[in-house]
Design goal:
The chain is mainly alpha-helical. Helix content is 76%, strand content 2%. It has a two-stranded antiparallel ribbon with strand order 1-2. A hairpin with a 6-residue loop joins strand 1 and strand 2. The longest helix is centred in the middle third of the chain and has 29 residues, at 102-130. The protein is elongated. The N and C termini lie far apart (55 Å).
Length: 203
Amino acid sequence: MDSQDASIQKKVPNHTRNSPHLAPGNGRIVPPHGQLAERDRPLIAVFCDWLAATRVSQRFQDLDWFVPLVQTIHILSIAVVMTSVGFIACKLLGLSGRRRSLAALMGGTMPWVWSALALLLITGTLLTITEPARELLNLLFRIKMLMVLAMAAILLLLQERLTRDPDYWTASAGRRGSARALGSAALLLAVCIIIAGRWIAYT
C-alpha cells in the first residue's frame, strides 16, 4: 500500500504541488507557502525591496564615495540646524545677552535653518533611496522624523509671530512664558533628534 501511494505521489506534477489547494474541513483555497509569506509581508517592507532593486538605488550603492559624501553634507546640515536652535532656545529662555533682540537673532539665523533643513531633506532622501530598509523599517527613524517636523513647526510659529510684531514674544508675561516653553520644547527636541540619529546607526 505504501509503495502504491509513493508511486502515485511521484506521478503528481510539480506545478500541481505548488498550486493553491483546498484546506481540509473549510473548503477555503490556501495559496502555496511562498505566496502566503509574500502576501503577509508588510507593505513598507515590500516597498523597501522594490526601491532597493531600482536602477537608481543600485547605482548609488555601487558608488563607494556616494554615501560618505552625502552623509557628510547631512551631518553638517544637522550641525547648522542644531546650533541655530540652541542659540534661539537660549534667547527664549533668557540665558543669552540682551544686546540683540529675538527678532534680530531669528532674522539672521532662520534663513540658515531653512536652507539646512532643505539640504537635510535632499540628503536624507538620497540616503533612504540607497538603503531604504535601514531607514524606513526602523521605528526610531519614524520617531525622529516626527520630532524634526515638530521642531520645524515651533520655529515656524516663532518666526511667523515675530514677522507680524518684532516684540510679540516679550509684550506680556504670558507671552514670555509661552516663549520659554517653546524654547524648552525646541531644545529638548533637538537633543532627542541627535540621540535618535546616533541610535539609528546601531540598530
